[in-house]
Amino acid sequence: MDAAPSTVERRAFTEVRTSGRRLEGYAATFGAEAQLGTFVETIEPGAFRSAITGDVLALLDHDAGKVLGRTRSGTLRLSEDSRGLAFSLDIPDTAAGRDVLTLADRGDLGGMSFGFNVPKGGEHWSGNRRSLRTIGLREISVVSAWPAYPDTELALRAIRSGNDALRRLRILTLARAGQWA
Description:
This is HK97 family phage prohead protease. One of its GO terms (molecular function) is peptidase activity. It comes from Sphingomonas floccifaciens. Keywords: Hydrolase, Protease, Viral release from host cell. By secondary structure, the protein is mostly beta strands. The chain has one domain: Serine Protease, Human Cytomegalovirus Protease, Chain A (Alpha-Beta Barrel). The chain is 14% helix and 40% strand. The protein is built from 2 helices and 13 strands, in the order βββββββββαββββα. The protein has helices at 95-106, 165-177; strands at 9-13, 15-19, 22-29, 34-36, 39-43, 57-60, 63-70, 76-80, 84-90, 111-117, 123-126, 129-132, 136-143. The strands form 3 sheets. It has a 5-stranded mixed beta sheet. The protein has a 4-stranded antiparallel beta sheet with strand order 2-3-9-8, covered by helices on one side. A 4-stranded mixed beta sheet has the order 4-5-12-11, with no helix packed on it. The two termini are 23 Å apart. The relative contact order is 0.28.
């Protein structure tokens, strides 16, 4: 089962911390299992290697009208380490940026998400298990929703970690209802 390269999928994580006007953490982690409806998905180390060299946006809630940064301008920095896709985002002094910082300070952020496509040959299926080997990263998003991958943890200074399966299912349902333009 190969996904068409133009099909954009979204996944959420909750590994975020603030430092001044900077948000840092992980937009994705390797090896964590996500129960996505009828299948289980994991991301393999190296899956983002080629994608992080392109122009990737940082958005608020996957909204292209609320750009928080981008790799091309240097306001978003991405790297892949042994744990996953790490990011560092300089938050702008815009309405969306101020909202993100306020929510982070209050402990109200749900975490991070990312929009991607899977290039031909970038996934491996074994029964109902999907392993992502190569990811075409389009954007990362600061979200107020719940994570698809339960093994990540929220690292905001003033936030409690932990989300239940029902919340994860709700965000997946909402993500599937939306379309990438």
